[in-house]
Specification:
50s Ribosomal Protein L17, Chain: A; alpha+beta; about 10% strand; about 55% helix; about 160 residues; three-stranded antiparallel beta sheet; single chain
Length: about 160
């Protein structure tokens, strides 16, 4: 005959696993204060430059914070501006958030950022990612080697012609 044991006694027994409540988010190997400061710095630079390269897990943790700030910017009132100023470090960046970034997303109800995986960092093999605001796609500058090489050849030919005459 099996005996019925109340659930409370099973859950509180030594060695029994409990459900992990309120432990969402990554700690990123930092204390709480350090992690909050990191997020403030990353969000400030993201709005300033509109794209940043960081590790994948930092980008995934910064995304909801950045999107919350854009939602504050869409409200366009003094209280929202002060809330943004309490988190974002530079006044000029808050001004940019409320004047240019938030109006860009006025018809959109979320999903203001994009995370693009870039591969692994050489030193420690950490997975890197580019986080950017939509509408400000990063376009790396590509130098055209053919034209540059041709221009140096023409310069050398011009120098030779000057020395001969």
């Amino acid at each position: 005959m099996s005996m019925v044991v109340p659930f409370a006694k099973i859950a509180s027994a030594p060695g029994a696993s409990k459900m992990p409540h309120q432990v969402a988010g990554r700690k990123l190997g930092r204390t709480t204060a350090h992690r909050k400061a990191l997020f403030r710095n990353l969000v400030t630079e993201l709005f300033d430059k509109e794209h940043i390269v960081t590790t994948l897990y930092k980008a995934k943790e910064v995304r909801p914070v950045a999107e919350r700030m854009i939602t504050l910017g869409k409200r366009e009132n003094l209280h929202a501006r002060r809330q943004a100023l309490s988190f974002i470090k530079k006044k000029a960046v808050v001004q940019k958030l409320f004047s240019t970034i938030a109006p860009r997303f006025s018809d959109r109800s979320g999903g203001y950022t994009r995370i693009i995986r870039l591969g692994f960092r050489k030193g420690d093999s950490a997975e890197m990612a580019l986080i950017e605001l939509l509408g400000s796609e990063y376009k790396p500058k590509i130098e055209k080697k053919g034209k540059k090489a041709a221009s140096t050849k023409t310069k050398k030919a011009a120098e030779r012609a000057d020395t001969k005459s």
